[in-house]
Write a structure and sequence with these properties.
Elements (H helix, E strand, L loop, with lengths): L5 E3 L13 E8 L4 E8 L5 E9 L7 H4 L4 H20 L4 E6 L1 H5 L3 H12 L3 E3 L2 H13 L8 E7 L4 E7 L2 E8 L3 H9 L5 H18 L9 E5 L1 H13 L12 E3 H12 L3 H5 L12 H15 L3 E5 L3 H9 L11 H13 L4 H18 L9 H11 L11 H10 L8 H12 L11 H4 L3 H19 L8 E8 L4 E7 L7 H9 L2 H7 L3 E4 L5 E2 L11
Parallel strand pairs: 1-4, 2-5, 5-6, 7-10, 10-12, 14-15
Antiparallel strand pairs: 2-3, 3-4, 7-8, 8-9, 11-12, 13-14, 15-16
Helix pairs in contact: 2-4, 5-12, 6-7, 6-11, 7-11, 9-11, 14-15, 14-19, 15-17, 15-19, 16-17, 17-19, 19-20, 19-21
C-alpha cells in the first residue's frame, strides 16, 4: 500500500493549499470521547492536519443500565460540538462529516439528541452501524499499513463496542461488531474498584461470544492492528516501560502479546489513583482501561497472534479519505519508509553523495560482522536509515551537529517504522561522532538494556563507515573484512579516481575504538598497499 503522508503543522491553517487539495473536517462522536480533525486532503491521500480538537463527555456512561444518554453528558457533548463546528467554519472546511457510534446508536434518546445538535450547530450527524465503524477503521488502517499481502484483523475498542475488520490481501472479507466496549464492560463487571475476580469474570463472559464471532481457521496468526484510544494508551504504557519516552508518536508500535498480559496484570492490582499515575496512560481513561485491555487480550488469544501493531489513526481519518474519494493503491513493501526518510533528509538539505556513500560502507560492514557481534537482520534497516540521516544536524549548524541530528530525527514525521525504531535511528545517528554512548546521556540511558546494546553496536559500525569518508570524496570504494585471531582487519579498496585515501583511512582508525570494544578484538584499518594505519598517522588534525 502506498502510504499517504500525514503531517501536522501549526502554520497549516495560514499556508496555501495545493491546487487539487480539499480542506475537510471529520468528527467522531464516540461513547467515551468526541474527536475532530480538520485537514487538507490530496487526491493521492496525503493528509496535512490543520487542527484537531477533543472532548470527553462520556456519552456512553450509564446507557447500558438506563438506555438513555444523560443530561450532563449531552450538554457537555453539545458544547464541544458547537466549538468544533465553529472551528471547522473558521478554518474554511468545505465539508464537515460527523458520525456517531455505539452510545448514540443504542440510546433511546439518541436521535433526539442529534436533532438538538443539528438545530444548535448545523451539523448533520450520521449514526453508524457497527459494521460501518469497522469499515472506516479498516479504511484508515489500509492507508497506514502494508495490508496488500496476507491476512489482517483491524480491531477498534470504543466505549460501547468492539469492531473487527477481517481482510485478505487488502480486501475486506468480514466485518464484526460486538457490544464489548470499555465503558459498558466496566459498568457491568468491574465498577469503581477493579478486582482480579471481576476481570476473570469479564474475560470468561466475552470469550465464548468472541469465539463464535471470530473464525480462527483462516485467521490464526493474522496481523492484528489496534486502532483508537485503547491502543494508543496501551502503546504509551509499553513504550514507557521500554524507556522510549522520547518517541513523538505511538503509531506503529509493535507490542508483544505477553506484554499486553503483563500490563493488564499490573493495572488490575492498582487502585484508581495508582492507575491514573501510570506513565503513558491518559488519567482520564484510567477507570475504564482495564476492561479495554482485557477485550484486546481475548481477541489476541483467540487469533493466537504473537503481537499487535498500534495505529494512532482511526475512524476520523477513514472518514476523511472516503469523503475525499481517495482510492487506495498498492506498492512494494517498505516504499513508504524509504520515501519518508529520503524526503526528510532532503528537507534538511543533506549532503546526499556523502550520506549515500557512508550508507553503502555501513551496510558492507554490517553484512560482514553484524551477525557475529549479535545484531539481527532487522537492525540492518535501522543502520541504513541512520547512515543516510547522520549529518542532517548540519541543517542547524556544524557544531554539535550529531546532537542536532538526534533531535531532528526523533521529532520527525516518519512513516513505515515503529517509535522504537525511530528512537534507535536517532540515537545511532547521534553517536556517529563525539563521545560514545554513555548511561549518563539521558537520550540513551533511559532506554532498556537490549535497545542500548543494539544502538551501541550499530553506532560503532557507523562511526567507522563515516570515518572512511572523512574527506567526503568517496575515496574508499569498499572494505574487505577478515576476522583474524588477533584482530578484526578492515582492508580498504580505493576508488580508481581517488588521488589519496590517507585522510579517510586515518579517520576510520581514529573512530574504530567503539567497534573494537563491541567486537572484543582490536580493529586494524589497512591501506590498499597493505600498510596498517595507526590513529597517530596524521598531520595533527583532530578527528571528526
Amino acid at each position: 500500500m502506498a502510504l499517504p503522508a500525514f503531517s501536522r503543522s501549526s502554520d497549516a491553517a495560514r499556508s496555501p493549499r495545493a491546487e487539487h487539495d480539499v480542506r475537510l473536517a471529520a468528527i467522531d462522536i464516540g461513547s467515551n470521547s468526541i474527536r475532530q480533525i480538520v485537514a487538507d486532503v490530496s487526491p493521492t491521500g496525503s493528509i496535512r492536519v490543520v487542527d484537531e480538537m477533543k472532548a470527553a463527555p462520556r456519552l456512553g456512561a450509564g446507557v447500558r443500565e438506563s438506555g438513555l444518554l444523560s443530561e450532563t453528558s449531552m450538554r457537555q457533548a453539545l458544547e464541544a460540538l458547537t466549538r468544533m463546528a465553529t472551528l471547522a467554519r473558521q478554518l474554511g472546511a468545505s465539508r464537515v462529516e460527523a458520525v456517531a457510534t455505539s452510545a448514540v446508536r443504542d440510546a433511546t434518546n439518541g436521535l433526539t439528541f442529534l436533532e438538538v445538535v443539528r438545530s444548535e450547530t448545523g451539523l448533520k450527524v450520521k449514526v453508524l452501524r457497527g459494521d460501518e465503524e469497522a469499515r472506516l477503521s479498516f479504511r484508515s488502517a489500509l492507508a497506514h499499513f502494508e495490508l496488500g499481502v496476507g491476512r489482517a484483523v483491524v480491531m477498534d475498542i470504543g466505549g460501547g463496542s468492539l469492531e473487527l475488520a477481517l481482510s485478505a490481501d487488502g480486501l475486506l472479507e468480514r466485518l464484526i461488531s460486538l457490544p464489548f466496549g470499555a465503558i459498558r464492560l466496566t459498568e457491568e463487571f468491574l465498577g469503581a474498584k477493579v478486582r482480579r475476580k471481576g476481570v476473570r469474570k469479564l474475560r470468561d463472559a466475552i470469550r465464548d461470544d468472541i469465539r463464535k464471532a471470530l473464525p480462527v481457521r483462516d485467521w490464526r496468526g493474522a496481523q492484528v492492528i489496534g486502532s483508537g484510544g485503547t491502543f494508543t494508551n496501551l502503546a504509551g504504557i509499553y513504550l514507557n516501560r521500554q524507556g522510549v519516552q522520547t518517541a513523538r508518536t505511538t503509531h506503529g508500535t509493535r507490542l508483544p502479546r505477553e506484554e499486553l498480559e503483563h500490563i493488564l496484570d499490573m493495572l488490575q492490582d492498582m487502585s484508581p489513583d495508582q492507575r491514573a499515575a501510570v506513565p503513558g496512560l491518559n488519567p482520564a481513561r484510567a477507570d475504564i482501561i482495564v476492561a479495554g485491555f482485557a477485550v484486546a487480550a481475548e481477541v489476541l488469544a483467540r487469533l493466537e497472534s504473537r503481537e499487535l501493531i498500534v495505529s494512532a489513526y482511526g475512524i476520523r481519518e477513514g472518514l476523511l479519505l472516503e469523503t475525499a474519494r481517495v482510492v487506495p493503491t498498492f506498492s512494494d513493501r517498505g516504499e513508504a519508509r524509504e520515501r519518508s526518510v529520503r524526503e526528510f533528509a532532503e528537507r534538511c538539505h543533506y549532503e546526499e553523495p556523502h550520506a549515500r556513500h557512508v550508507q553503502r560502507l555501513s551496510l558492507q560492514l554490517f553484512d560482514a560482522i553484524g551477525p557475529r557481534i549479535g545484531l539481527a537482520a532487522t537492525d540492518r534497516q535501522i543502520l541504513a536509515d541512520a547512515a543516510l540521516l547522520h549529518d542532517v544536524g548540519y541543517h542547524i549548524n556544524y557544531e554539535n551537529h550529531h546532537k542536532h541530528s538526534y533531535h531532528l530525527i526523533v521529532h520527525a514525521d516518519m512513516l513505515g517504522m515503529s517509535p522504537e525504531e525511530q528512537v534507535a535511528i536517532a540515537n545511532v545517528a547521534r553517536y556517529h561522532r563525539g563521545a560514545p554512548p554513555k548511561r549518563k546521556h539521558r537520550n540513551y540511558g533511559i532506554l532498556d538494556r537490549a535497545l542500548r546494546r543494539r544502538i551501541r553496536k550499530l553506532a560503532a559500525i557507523l562511526r567507522v563507515a563515516d570515518g572512511l569518508d572523512r574527506g567526503h570524496i568517496g575515496g574508499v570504494e569498499r572494505v574487505k573484512v577478515r576476522w583474524l585471531d588477533r584482530a578484526l582487519r578492515l582492508t580498504c579498496v580505493a576508488n580508481r579516481r581517488a588521488q589519496s585515501v590517507r585522510l579517510d583511512l586515518w579517520g576510520a582508525s581514529r573512530k574504530s575504538e567503539l567497534l573494537s570494544k563491541v567486537a572484543r578484538i582490536p580493529v586494524e584499518v589497512v591501506a590498499p598497499d597493505g600498510t596498517v594505519i595507526s590513529p597517530q598517522d596524521s598531520d595533527g588534525e583532530q578527528p571528526d
